[in-house]
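Hi D.,

Good news: the full-assembly prediction came through. Inputs first.
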Amino acid sequence: MIEITGLCKAFAGRRGIGEVQAIQDLSLTVHDHEFLTILGPSGCGKTTLLRALAGLVDWDEGEISIDGKPVRGPGPERSMVFQNFALLPWATVLNNVAFGLELRGVGKKEREEKAAHLIQTVGLSGFEKRLPGELSGGMQQRVGLARALAVEPEVLLMDEPFGALDEQTRRLLQEELLRIWEANRITVIFITHSMEEAVLLGDRVVLMSARPGKIQEIVPVPLARPRSADVDRVSQSEEFVAITSHLWTRLRDMQHELQHRGVEAVAS
Amino acid sequence: MSGGQPASAARHSLPARVWRAVVDSDNFYRLLTLLIIGVAWQLLAINAGGLLIPSFTDTVIALVELLFDPVLWEALLISNQAMIIGFAISVVIGIPLGLAMGRFRAAEQFSDVYLNILLVTPISTLIPLLVMSVGIGLAARIILVVFFTFIMIIVNSRAGVRQVDPSLIEMGRSFGASERQLWQRIILPGAMPAVMAGIRIGLSRAVQGMVIVELLMVSVGIGGLILRYRGFFQADKLYAVIVVIVIEALILISLARWVERRVVPWAPSTSKRASGNRGATR
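Then the structure:
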């Protein structure tokens, strides 16, 4: 179980003036084996929240703990999938997937076996010896996913992993991710700015608002699992459409309010 | 003959195919350029003529003579001693310094201003200074070569570290990499293409430094040879020596490029970039 209590994080603006409150007093509990999606407009602090969870940034106030242990930096029970894939351009697919294990001192034979297995899981068999530059974006993110899974994390942190991909690749990878996740059900925290993606994948959708970044609403997604078998039917179901349109209404209101406040700020 | 397509080329006779291969190779056009320059040179020399401008053919003959003359090889040996030692010192000092400056702010703050001063200072102005302090021996020549070379290597190594994708470092940290592991697995390989480019540029600077120091300060080696031939108005030999220097520089640069391709095969080379994404599909 991940517990976030009273998290605050501010960034200094340019030349130290105009501080930006990226996250303000955010509290959230993520259950074990839960697929949690975080949805919000850009600048709502969702990526900052994920980076804090990963232990990559410090925060000003509040506490993050995983199974009762406070987070003080990166840890072996967490791994991350990056929006821009972050693959080593000089390393083969196999070595990229094995990279996390290599850093943890796992022997060559063992890590390559594990990596080969995961390459198969993400559907990249036969590409083990290729370099990332020879792969399409979708294939590169499969490598990123395999690398994150290779270290057998309890918590998988995904930072808009499909944001840089085209629509059809994105859909295929969503299906693939559902299939993989429904087989092992580790805890996933998934950042996205796509409402459909948030609903299709998540058990709950955390809706965040910008400036300051805080949680507006947590929307449960009661769609039956497994969803990977028939993604098309799920995404056309009444329930699915109802939840996405609710999210859209809320997001649109937030956007109006932001513009309103912007106008006021300019006027005053 | 319109054998532009590979399919139709296969149907042509052997001489036609050989002709195509010749026309398609880059070297053909390089040689053609050389030929044009040679003819233009020859015509100019015949018309303007005289003692000061040797003709193209005279230069070629002098070059062949020179290649069989032990004087040239002795001169090359002397010059290259300073060049190779100076270049090696530059690499040994420059790469670690540049890498440290790219990664650590403190190293940058200590040295940035001085590096910039060295970058804008014409190095030749240091020559009288060097002569006064260390004399005209091998040491002075080595030091000058170092001054010519190591800045380029530092600047490129520093740029190499800075251009390592920050998301790769973040990725490494997220998987729990130590600073040492970050260096070994991410920063060094990431900086390698720029470091290799720095070595290549440094090498050409080292050759320049080697000749300049001999021309301006210590008339030994290749520079000394140039000065001597100038003194005797042996223009053809003078030109031939310059050609030798150019050839040496070209050989060294090709060597550096070859090493570069071995060490950093993932880096986009100039020729690969020119041929578009052909490299990506292979």
